[in-house]
Amino acid sequence: FLMQTSEMLRKICMRNLVRKYCRGLTAERKVQLQQKVVTSAVFCGKKEGYLESLSQPFLETRLRENDLNPKVLQLIRGENIKYVTPVIKYDRNGFKARERLLVLTQSSAYVVEMAKIKQKIEYSTLKGISTSNLSDGIVVIHVPEDNKQKGDVILQCEHLFETVTKLCILANKQSLVKVVKGSLRFRIGSGKEGTMVFSVGPEPQVFRDKTGQLTVV
User: Fold this and answer.
1) Residue 178: exposed, middle, or buried by beta-carbon count in 10 A (0-12, 13-18, 19+)?
2) For 115-136, how does the pLDDT look when each residue is reduced to its tens digit (9 = 90+)?
3) Domain annotation covers residue 189
């Protein structure tokens, strides 16, 4: 009887402690925890660097709305900007690296070059999000094969866990995130596909190899 009573009291005490903790959370802290739960579901045990990312708080955004070119703001007016981060975009043909911004609104993702919108991806059409299991910052956003899209988007993000988490929460497509090993296929456009290969080496690099594939070390 004493053991049963002790177990009941332990459960009650634990429940009270949890209730007290939850009630004491600030709105900002609550958002952090909600985002980290999604990150865990997507990356825990799958991608290198996940454990190190646990202690790093996600920022609301890496750049403010005021940092965007006024022409870009005019083009996406009416959409609530949720997150902006600098990225490196790799061309689908030739894989040349280009500095871009990734702008996430409540309904679409935009790849922006200075005052130009290079590509718009509506979340409703998003087909998938792929990353490797290694510690690189590469993410591929898969888009539908139609005349509106040039092909899948290949990006390198400094804060990959944060960026992918924000994207899949806004798009409500957490289940579409895939962590792959070895290689992945991406659509170039006009029915063509390319291959990206992931490997381990002494220093990080991204280059086009002799076979024409994009190699990420």
Assistant:
1) middle
2) 999 999 999 999 999 999 999 9
3) no
Domain count within the chain:
1
Can you tell me the distance from the alpha carbon of 184 to that of 20, in angstroms, rounded to the nearest whole number? Answer: 46
3-state secondary structure of 117: strand
Asked if the structure places residue 107 within a domain, the reply is yes
Burial class (CB in 10 A: 0-12, 13-18, 19+), 106: exposed
pTM metric for this prediction: 0.87
pLDDT in tens, 22-55: 676 688 888 898 999 999 999 999 999 999 999 9
Question: DSSP label at 84?
Answer: E
Q: How many CB atoms lie within 10 A of CB 39?
A: 22
**CATH code for the domain in which residue 49 is found:** 2.30.29.30
Cα separation, 98 vs 156, whole angstroms: 10
Strand-by-strand arrangement of the 214-216 sheet = 183-189, 192-198, 214-216, 206-208
* Residue 130 near residue 140, CB atoms below 8 Å: yes
What's 207's DSSP letter?
Answer: E
Q: What is the DSSP string of 119-179?
A: EEEEGGG--EEEEESSS--EEEEE--SSTT--S-EEEE-TTHHHHHHHHHHHHT-GGGEEE
Q: Which residue range(s) make up the domain with 76?
A: 2-181
Query: Residue 142 phi/psi, 5° resolution?
Result: -90, 130
